[in-house]
């Protein structure tokens, strides 16, 4: 190892390389990595406003609006008037988006395989545990996890 001061560089470079491979895996599906994560989150959330999604992904509402507009245009999600506030919209996964989830998850598994083939199964497992620990320690959460879901209708 050249220098301890370069550790962040190794992490960032590895993340870029992995994301590039994921981009190529998802390209035939017509989506990008973050869009795939949004579809996955909506599958867990059932429905969400753009503000809720923006909060869950730690992006601005304007950025989320741009991403969700593309997903609506592609037919992967639907936008409906919120039943409780007609001034707001609710986003839901469409059938087309739901049908895509298996392919998205297969692409994610393919990238897990790339990592495992590159560093071996034990190191791949350790890497997953360490990156999860880091994400949690930095305040990250799985978008759409139980703690972030909107309450169900009563």
Low-confidence stretches: 148-154
DSSP strand tally: 3
What is the end-to-end distance? 57 Å
* Structural class estimated from helices and strands: mainly alpha
CATH superfamily heading: Winged helix-like DNA-binding domain superfamily/Winged helix DNA-binding domain
Total helices: the number is: 6
The main pleated sheet reads as:
3 strands, antiparallel
The figure for the number of domains is 1
What proportion of the residues is helical, as a percent range? Answer: 55-70%
How would you sum up the global shape?
globular
Could you please say which CATH topology applies here? Arc Repressor Mutant, subunit A
What percent strand? 5-15%
Protein name: Winged helix-turn-helix transcriptional regulator
Pfam family, one: MarR_2
Domain HTH marR-type: 1-136
GO molecular function: DNA-binding transcription factor activity
Which secondary structure elements does this structure contain, and how are they paired or packed?
Blueprint: H1 7-26, H2 33-45, E1 47-48, H3 50-57, H4 61-73, E2 77-81, E3 89-93, H5 95-119, H6 121-137
Antiparallel strand pairs: 1-3, 2-3
Helix pairs in contact: 1-5, 2-5, 3-4, 5-6
Descriptive overview:
The protein is globular. About 60% of the residues lie in helices and about 10% in strands. It is built from six helices and three strands; from the N terminus they run H-H-E-H-H-E-E-H-H. It has a single domain, classed as Winged helix-like DNA-binding domain superfamily/Winged helix DNA-binding domain (Arc Repressor Mutant, subunit A), CATH 1.10.10. The chain is mainly α.
